[in-house]
Specification:
The protein is an alpha/beta fold and 321 residues long. It is 34% helix and 10% strand.
Length: 321
């Protein structure tokens, strides 16, 4: 881990982040200034597929356009011992002085209303313990963590008691990172520009403890354009001022090159978006969903399961057809 030098990157951010995004100074050290770029996982699903299929006619394009780009790795109940899994991942990134992107996805009843990515921890207590282990495994090493996609987007199928449990778990998870991972920026998921109005989302973010996080994340695993999400993010940030603070945001650009056609589950004709970078209408544009990984048994991913890598979908996403 490169020692903090708060020049350079911070000066760049000051020029490229819209003024509305600049909230109070973060409580944690800046992981950007401690690393030399984003981590590329050599064992991501597209990289593993390319390594196993070198003679496939699609392999070269998938290697260059997807596998060699920095993107997030997701951690959930499939990860085995979460402390070991996270420690190994952030350790590998730290060894090469790069910033790892992680997505925590293990809330009880996650995707409760969507239904394609169900599962998660078995109870509130189990999730609290999982989040504490996750944060402890990151420790003092620099990282960016996006916390629980879909968690605040759809409450329609949930009781008030379930909503209270969920926001409580999110708030406690944020506090775990604040206390155990001082060089981590946590962004709480806030849906996307086509889902919940900005006023409602700001209320939900506040209830879920976003005041203790670095900021919020938009468009995770969705397709809305960067511009649409940037406008929405600025509205949410402005609404948060009603609670006495504001926050920056990041946007998932992994699959938004052609925008949304109104479908969220493996729609055809989507395209890769801007690779992970600083600025661009948000604090960062990040590949959070891995291009080519299925959203579930739907659309052009019919017959697949959520998270399964589909090389033909990945290949078509490179060219937008």
């Amino acid at each position: 881990m490169r020692r903090p030098t708060l020049t350079g990157v911070l000066a760049t951010l000051a020029m490229i982040v819209p003024a509305v995004l600049l909230g109070p100074s973060p409580a944690h050290a800046d992981p950007l200034s401690q690393t030399s770029g984003f981590y590329v996982n050599p064992y991501s699903s597209p990289a593993s597929w390319v390594a196993a299929n070198p003679g496939d006619g699609r392999a070269a394009a998938i290697r260059t356009s997807i596998a060699q780009k920095p993107m997030a790795s997701w951690f959930g109940n499939w990860s085995g011992d979460i402390a070991t899994a996270v420690r190994n991942y952030v350790g590998a990134a730290d060894a090469v002085d790069k910033l790892p992107l992680l997505v925590a996805y293990n809330l009880p009843g996650r995707d409760a209303c969507g239904g394609h990515s169900g599962g998660g921890a078995g109870s509130v207590g189990a999730y609290d313990a999982w989040a504490a282990s996750f944060a402890g495994a990151v420790g003092s090493r620099p990282a960016v963590v996006v916390l629980e996609p879909d968690s605040l987007g759809d409450f329609n199928c949930m009781s008030q008691s379930q909503i209270n449990d969920r926001t409580g778990m999110l708030s406690r998870a944020i506090n775990q990172f604040r206390s155990k991972a001082p060089n981590t920026w946590v962004y709480l998921d806030a849906g996307n520009s086509g889902w919940v109005d900005a006023t409602t989302m700001a209320q939900r973010l506040n209830q879920a403890g976003v005041a203790g996080a670095r900021g919020f994340a938009l468009n995770v695993s969705n397709y809305f354009t960067t511009g649409e999400n940037s406008n929405y993010g600025n509205r949410v940030a402005n609404e948060l001022r009603r609670f006495g603070y504001s926050k920056p945001f990041v946007i998932d650009t992994s699959r938004n090159g052609n925008g949304s056609n109104g479908q969220w589950c493996n729609p055809a004709g989507r395209r890769l978006g801007t690779p992970s970078q600083l600025g661009g209408g948000a604090e960062m544009l990040l590949w959070l969903k891995t291009p080519g990984e299925s959203d579930g048994n739907c659309g052009v991913g019919g017959g697949s399961s959520a998270g399964q890598f589909l090389p033909e979908v990945a290949y078509k996403m490179i060219y937008g057809y």
